[in-house]
Amino acid sequence: MKHITITAIALFLFTTNIFSQTTNKIVNLATVEGQFQNLIDKSNSFQDYKVIKKTSLLKLQSNVLDSLKVSKNKVLANVNFLNSQKQVIDDLQARSTASQAVLANLRSEKDSISLLGIPLEKTLFKTLFFFIVIGLIATLVFFIFKFKQSNLITIESRLALQQSEKEFEIYKEKALEREQKAMRRLQDELNKKKKESSAVLAR
């Protein structure tokens, strides 16, 4: 009988211990608000006061401090994350500014052309190039006109020279004919005088 009583008491204490551990585990796993509510529900009432066990209060304090520590760590992690994100955003903004500057420089280079080391806008370069081409074409047309004019003068000079040569040839021929006629007349006169002289001598 004594042995049964001891066994019953041991079983009761063991069951109470297991129940207490289970309750503590539930309290540990509950939210802070749930733990406060559980503490109020399980505490004894005395008039308008609640009598709370010191161990339960210390456990709640430990749990609250742990929750605060976890929350603080989460806040710090969030702050660190936000700082890292801000740094990434600042870096991206700096890169974006640099990219915009490069893009503006490329647009400026695209819209301008370097001529003998002097940067010129494309519109000004096109206008200058247009006037240079027009000037070259005008100069070419002028030289072609002058060449044709000189060629025409040369052809006319050749024709005039040929005409002069023909006229000179005709003049030479006429002069030669006149000289031959004059020589014949002179010869005839000489012959005539010889005959007359011979006739006079014969008498």
Order of helices and strands: HHEEHEEH
Shape descriptor: rod-shaped
Low-pLDDT residue spans: 1-29
What is the terminal-to-terminal distance?
Answer: 230 Å
User: What's the number of extended β-strand segments?
Assistant: 4
Radius of gyration: 68 Å
Strand order of the largest sheet: 1-2
- Average per-residue pLDDT, rounded, comes to 78
Largest sheet: 2 strands, antiparallel
Count helical runs: 4
Give the helix proportion (percent range): over 70%
**In what range is the share of β-strand residues?**
5-15%
- Helix/sheet category: mainly alpha
Could you explain how this protein is built, in words?
There is one protein chain. The protein is mostly helical. Helix content is 88%, strand content 7%.
List keywords for this structure.
203 residues, mainly alpha, two-stranded antiparallel sheet, 4 helices
How are the elements arranged and paired?
Elements: H1 2-29, H2 32-42, E1 44-46, E2 49-51, H3 54-111, E3 112-115, E4 118-121, H4 122-202
Antiparallel strand pairs: 1-2, 3-4
Helix pairs in contact: 2-3
Give a short synopsis of this structure:
The chain has 203 residues and is mainly alpha-helical.
